[in-house]
Amino acid sequence: MTVSRRDLLLGSAGLAAGAAGMSMLGSVPARAQSAMKFTPEQGASLRVLRWSPFVKGDEDAWLANTKKFTEATGVEVRIDKESWEDIRPKAAVAANVGSGPDVMWVWFDDAHQYPDKLLDVTDLANDLGSRYGGWYAGPEGYAKREGRFIGLPLATIGNALCYRESWVKEAGFSEFPKDTAGFLELCKALKAKGHPAGFPHGKAVGDGNNYAHWLLWSHGGKMVDESGKVVINSPETIEALKYARELYQTFIPGTESWLDVNNNRAFLAGEVSVTANGVSLYYAAKNDPKLAEMAADIRTTNLPIGPVGQTVELHQTTTAVIFKYSKFPQAAQAYLQFMFEADQMNNWIQGSSAYCCQTLKAFANNPIWTSDPVHAPYAKASDTLRPNGYAGPLGYASAAVMADYVLVDMFAEAATGQRTPEDAAKRAEQRANRYYRV
């Protein structure tokens, strides 16, 4: 097994609960662990391309499970890694040229940009769903097209506010505000105390998209309506952009160029008091003896509720796809089945330390979710996920609009003052209409 490229951040909670924890998973049916449905081709070997881990235990568990697969089948598996931002173009190139990894982990609705290049895995997905409580609707939607699975929903990476409790209290707040108005006042107070906030306005695949979609949806805006007509240029969107501009005034300088790693670094350096992130941020602090005081001060909560009156959040979602050009499609499906079976999937969720939320409902009782109060906001990410294509159908257009960072750029332009809210919304409308043609 070959491991290449770099890790973005250190941090692993290890496989803390181990076998004892796994025995608690009563929701996994007794018949769940199934015989292999697919027989690997003679002499098969596989190349898998995944994103670089933010929690080292995620990778450690995945590699351990892969080793078990090789020992059981004789199929050698090479695991490569790429940065989050590089996954999307790498997958598009592989699809277009017809060569590259056999299996790849892709983001959000990327699979809908090249569905005809992907192996139909409907039989495998239905088998896993029938034995493990069914798929959560949000991740399933990203992996299906026209009723067929073009990939397997692999994980939802929960997104939540991470903040320093002592600094929130120093700013005069006994508890974290639950609405957007209160959140803005908190961030103003934090900045006045020398503890600015920080959220990515750069082309961050995960954190930038999660933040921008929350800003839009919390104020009642949406990119398209149910028919796929672009409706981003609306009064609700203008209000969201005005709010983003006010919130931006409380930020540390430079957030307009932040990628997914930058808010982690700023928070861990003590430069910002609050940001939105996966649980990886907490574990990066917890596993560094120098940051023990910070780790003890970190708290998490779901993003505030805006004028729309309900929780509306986008979470980073990843799908495992098999390209049709693979010489070993049977081996690739055997590999994914093996990795989704109870022993391996529970091991991976546990090793991920609440970073990777299950996409199959039977794994919701993994003890990792109740092992630490910090994990609570991440526990139901797959259940609460709103797809980025809301309120229209997922497909080429929704995937292309996200890949082109139309929404992220709109908020960056308005927040930083490059454009007025009205001009930013109008430009986003024009850009989106290049992809949505109704």
TrEMBL record:
InterPro entries: Bact_solute-bd_prot1, SBP, TAT_signal. The keyword Cell inner membrane does not apply. Belongs to the bacterial solute-binding protein 1 family. PROSITE patterns: TAT. One of its GO terms (cellular component) is periplasmic space. It holds the Pfam family SBP_bac_8. It comes from Chelatococcus caeni. Residues 419-438 are annotated as: Disordered. This is Multiple sugar transport system substrate-binding protein. Its main location: periplasm. It is found in: Periplasm. Residues 420-432 have a biased composition (Basic and acidic residues). Keywords: Periplasm, Signal, Sugar transport, Transport.
